[in-house]
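Worked Example 4.2. Consider the chain below.
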Amino acid sequence: MALLLGVDTGGTYTDAVLIRDDREVIATAKALTTRHDLAIGIGGAVEAVLRQSGAPPREIAMASLSTTLATNALVEGQGGRAGLVYIGFRERDLEGHGLREALGRDPALVIAGGHTHAGSEARALDLDALGAWLESDLGVSGFAVAAQFATRNPAHELAAMEMIREKTGRPVSCSHQLSARLNGPKRALTALLNARLIGMIARLIDKAESTLKGFGIEAPLMVVRGDGALISATQARERPIETILSGPAASIVGASWMTGADHALVSDIGGTTTDVALLRDGKPLIDPAGARVGPWRTMVEAVAMRTTGLGGDSEVHVNEAGLAGGITLGPRRVVPVSLMALEAPALVEKVLEEQLRSDTPGEHDAHFVRAVPGLEADGLHERERALLERIGPEVHPVQVVLRTRMDMASLGRLVARGLVQMSGVTPSDASHVLGFQDVWDSQSAEKALSLLARKRTGAGTRVAEGPEAMARMILDQLTHQTGLALLESAFAEEEESFGLPAAELARHVLMQRGLGGHHGLVRLETGLNLPVIGLGASAATYYPAVGARLGCAVELPPHAGVANAIGAVVGRVNIRRRGTVTSPVEGCYRVHLAGGPQDHGDAEAALAALQTFLEAEARAGALAAGAGEIHVTATREVTMAQAEAREVFLEATIIVEASGRPRITG
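Applying the procedure from the previous section yields the following structure tokens:
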């Protein structure tokens, strides 16, 4: 009998499961995710499942980790500070695919170099400019390098990487190593995000490995990729961008394993995000355009999923403008007041009482702040550094640490870097007020919601009459926004049939009126025409109302709260490699390899050479990822054209997949 350990580190909770022989869940547990020291949360969850099961640690044959940390970091705009080297492009190309917006205040260098579509050098690489730039005080934790047509010839990216490593010792993410597809700006964005995530994911993996060894678990650690496949911890350290949507992808795999569902929408609500994906023929769909997380469309192959900044710990915003007022949720995650009160009970209770005694609602009522210790704070401006030092690791009410209006902008930047955590009212607090949850401090939640309820709309009326009414308003809004996320995902599969964007269709007045069963002169009835599988610790609390709103069946599996951890151990290793053959001139067939272009005089010889190379790479990658009994498949896509009554070879793409279940110890 093989025991498999699955661990999922989310924004709020760390989950652990033990599964016997890929068939039976024998223990599950949750512990709070401790961002300042992830080992505490991981250790708490693992210790609990070992205690429940009574299983000796040495009998665990495989351990696997899924995580929402990379996804949450990108949704919330967090991550390390990274420098971008952009080779062979123009300055205005930084605008492509939101690259300029993604850079923010991080440094970027645009220099001469790059190659042509055929892989020939377009201009010489300006290493002098790169060397001078690296001598300046950049204050970055890593670098991203993207060169024009690097997937046709990576020579300039490799040369830049060598110089950066030699001069700085910092990790470097090359765009051609993350995707074999064309589209330089999109590859650059992917490399930039990868560089930002390296430190975060490396810390998580280090903590996980050391924690498991501390329990006497010697099994190798696997990590879930964004398409639900498993890779080795070493591979995840090098390519952390591939772990975006890792947690959500694992939950889809777990949902399929638990329910055996053939056709359904899977919706996983966590602390930070709601992730929705479609199961078709029992398998999650892969997004052909690359994973989208928050505002970013990457070139990472991942489950086709819509990620929305909506979760149990989403910040509640009161709209005080306009006559009607109202609230919205997210996209930023904050620490629930009821949870922060467990950490600093005396201070939180004292501050909330003082705010309630005040005659005038304050801008920062029920908001607290603390610094996250142990993180690099490179590249901060003087004002930001001073504010970070003023906050320190202790919990403070926000109004105490803000001395000027400019401090508010500085605080926002510190939160975006992940250096500071905010606390405020969330749906989790509302659930405590209404008695749906009782694991944290319900009294502090009630006081915080009382502060929110007394805020005034533009008409001068209270937002809500008391904490219970405020709590119901928050959960009604959660139901509404969750319904929109599900409808958008469903409409995204049928956009071509309607001719309108999915978001517009979901919000259309006729759609929304139909959900309420409008029966006037016109009868409108709308809803979802497939079941929803609700996952996440809070799904049982929130999703029955969502099903009633959308008029669909909702299935809540017995272990829905730990679906991510289940999916982490029931998945397969699947390594995919892609390569291209072009024909720059008639009679020349060019294979684009990692070591540079290779020319052949015959098309079939070129295709065979490429396939042999890709199969070897994929098999080696699968072995390195820990797969056993590897199965290799290859597909070819050849583009031909008609010219003077004969077919002419234009281009061919070969995709090779090597897959297998992970090898287990013992």
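Residues 573-660 form one domain. The two ends are 10 Å apart (CA to CA). Compare this with Example 4.1 before moving on.
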